[in-house]
Amino acid sequence: MKIRIGTRGSRLALAQTRSIAERLRLNGHEVSEVVIETRGDRDQEASFPEFGGSGVFVHEIERALLQQQIDLAVHSYKDLPATGPADLTIGAIPERLDAADCLLVREEVVDLDDVRLPVRRRARIGTGSARRTALLHWARSDLEILPLRGNVDTRVGKLMAGDYDAIVVAAAGLDRIEAAGGLQQHHKGKVRRCRLDPSWFVPAPAQGVLALQIRRADAELAAAVKVLHREQIARPVSCERQLLVRVEGNCQLPFGAWCEVLPGGRLALVHRTLSSNKYFLLLLVALVAYFYWFGMRPIESVQSCHIAARNAAKAVLQQRISMNPNNVQLQQAAKAGMLVDEDYNAAYRSCMRSKGYS
């Protein structure tokens, strides 16, 4: 079968597409690449809010698919809007690399006193993501968050040029480029890579996931790509995407969701809530709505355990301050209304277990 794959022209997009093309060729298909420039690729200066919505990296590719100029599109799933054209569908979810974000820090500004964000005070951090901006502001009020656009190569180049002290990028994107022989020569020995644990720096829904998009009516191609589908990946990703749909989210909503697969195949949806940050109230609303609509846990249990966990975490924080009165970091956390993630998560899980939810 002849298959034309539509893709963006960035090194990351091509690396993703070629990994899928190779698998299809091994299954006996004749595959060609069609590079399509999207609006997001053409305009490297405008911020995402200036584009007026989501899908800035996919609309032109979806149009080509609908007009039968291509047969298959390979997307970073997190770039796809919560809802798409009715005549298109996701034919396969073949892989997920690390869902986490990572911080690339220039060696001269590394500060290991902060184990979560190891950068010096008042460091300049680059990101174009509303979610990452909100998380960084929550974690460190001293940081200066600056807008950053461009593909991974461009962003790393701006970091090395001294425009930023650190930048936040998706770990999966770096992994895919480095597997294809990419970025190492640019930052080896000059930049430190720090993984941001998704339990507190919550990723975008479906981050690290590839999505193979096809025309809904193309039964032959659906059968061809089905062999690449991995249901064990699709199941947790589907939870993240359904939650995104419920809150009508897009790339400009400061919203993160990460579904962790627990022993026995159970799923745990990781969330972040901060009453001191208006953006993260959306996470609580979304979580409660998700449990309500999908019947996973009673709405009152989620609300009551959230309140109980916050109070417990606050009490633990005050206890630590009383035991370490000279610890400036703890004092700043209390003043900013911040909680220690481990304390909140442990208290929340304990509360839910007491109500019969594991």
Tell me what you see in this structure.
With 358 residues, this protein is α/β, with parallel strands linked by helices. The chain folds into three domains: 2-95 and 209-230, Periplasmic binding protein-like II (D-Maltodextrin-Binding Protein, domain 2, 3-Layer(aba) Sandwich); 101-196, D-Maltodextrin-Binding Protein, domain 2, CATH 3.40.190.10; 262-354, no CATH class. The protein contains 14 helices and twelve strands. The protein has helices spanning 11-26, 39-42, 48-51, 59-66, 130-139, 152-160, 171-179, 184-187, 219-226, 231-246, 278-294, 299-323, 328-335, 341-354; strands at residues 2-7, 30-35, 72-76, 88-92, 101-106, 124-126, 144-146, 166-170, 191-196, 210-215, 258-261, 267-270. The protein has a five-stranded mixed beta sheet, with helices on both faces. Strands 7-6-8-5-9 form a five-stranded mixed beta sheet, sandwiched between helices. Helix 5 (130-139) links the parallel strand 6 and strand 7. Helix 10 (231-246) packs across helix 11 (278-294). The radius of gyration is 21 Å and the shape is globular. The termini are far apart.
SS element count, helices: 14
Secondary-structure-derived class: alpha/beta
Pattern of helices and strands: EHEHHHEEEEHEHEHHEEHHEEHHHH
How many beta-strand segments? 12
Rg calc: 21 Å
pLDDT below 50 for ≥5 consecutive residues: which ranges? 273-282, 291-302
- Quick one: overall form? globular
Q: Distance between the terminal alpha carbons, to the nearest Å?
A: 47 Å
